[in-house]
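Subject: design request, 244 residues
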């Protein structure tokens, strides 16, 4: 859906949420009802008129754009084939990681050894996968849902386990920006579920912070990985000592 069409759809939805009819809106704008209907049917808005509509709805244009982008269908997961395609090309995986963390295309090719020509090819592949929408001027619009996740035991998770996990935990976690908490005890099923809920909430808070800071330059943000894990587990060496 084109950007203009999404914005008009978002305006209509906001009017409906507030119980504003075209007739009521025409009175607020000083126009005839037919003129308002024509304006919405053709999408012929001036910037001044759009400002007036946003003032009536008590939102700004930036909020309207964000709302309009949320109306498009978003992917919650890649296909197994597309995940395999990503891990087969480390530069494609790198570009994907950066874009999912709200880097601009220019920031990606400025930081990494990827030519603009090759970068455009990666953007086209991601556009084909429906991860992004490639827009004029090499701009990118993400098409992933807020609950996007990698496939369980898929190519990305296997890549993480084989290439990332060991290196990640080899760190001593002694600097101020790191922490490693390891707890072990005997908990009831009820307590286990309470902890799982809190870990999920912490993961959601991480996503919220990542979203809130998306407009900051990539140079002001730092690659950050958080692993939250809990499972029913007992040290195997101890289990060997159990009476049979």
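Subject: RE: design request

Done. Sequence follows.
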């Amino acid at each position: 859906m084109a950007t203009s069409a999404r914005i008009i759809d978002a305006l209509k939805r906001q009017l409906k949420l507030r119980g504003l009819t075209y007739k009521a809106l025409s009175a607020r704008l000083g126009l005839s009802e037919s003129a308002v209907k024509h304006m919405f049917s053709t999408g012929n808005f001036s910037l001044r008129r759009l400002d007036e509509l946003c003032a009536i709805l008590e939102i700004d244009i930036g909020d309207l754009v964000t709302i309009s982008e949320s109306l498009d269908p978003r992917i919650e997961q890649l296909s197994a084939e597309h995940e395999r395609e990503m891990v087969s090309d480390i530069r494609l995986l790198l570009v994907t990681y950066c874009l999912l963390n709200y880097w601009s295309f220019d920031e990606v090719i400025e930081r990494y050894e990827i030519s603009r020509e090759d970068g455009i090819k990666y953007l086209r592949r991601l556009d084909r996968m429906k991860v992004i929408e490639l827009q004029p001027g090499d701009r990118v619009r993400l098409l992933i849902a807020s609950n996007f996740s990698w496939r369980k035991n898929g190519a990305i998770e296997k890549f993480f386990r084989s290439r990332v996990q060991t290196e990640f935990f080899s760190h001593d976690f002694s600097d101020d920006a790191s922490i490693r908490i390891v707890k072990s005890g005997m908990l009831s099923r009820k307590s286990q579920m309470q902890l799982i809920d809190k870990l999920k909430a912490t993961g959601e808070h991480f996503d919220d912070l990542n979203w809130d800071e998306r407009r900051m330059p990539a140079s002001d943000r730092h690659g950050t990985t958080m692993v939250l894990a809990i499972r029913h587990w007992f040290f195997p060496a101890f289990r060997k000592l159990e009476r049979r």
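The first strand starts at residue 132 and ends at 135.
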